[in-house]
Amino acid sequence: MEKYDGIIIGFGKGGKTLAGDLANAGKRIAIIEKSDNMYGGTCINIACIPSKSLVNSAAHTKIKEPLSFQEKAKLYQKAIEEKSNLTSRLRKKNFDKLNNHNNVTIYTGTATFRSPNQVSVELEHETVVLEGEYIFINTGAIPILPDIEGIENNDRVYTSSTLMDLEKLPERLAIIGAGYIGLEFASIYSDFGSQVTVFQDGMEFLSREDKDIAEDILQVLKEKGIDFKLGSKINAVRNQSKEAIISYFDIVAGENKEHPADAVLIATGRKPNIEGLNLAAAGVELTTRSAVKVDEYLRTSTPNIWAMGDVTGGLQFTYISLDDYRIVRSQLIDKDVKRSTKERVNIPYSIFINPPYSRVGLNEREAIEQEFEVKIAKLPVASIPKAQVLQQTKGILKAVIDAKTNLILGAMLFCAESHEMINVIKLAIDAGLPYTFLRDQIFTHPTMSESFNDLFTTIN
Question: So which residues are the catalytic ones?
Answer without folding.
Answer: 445
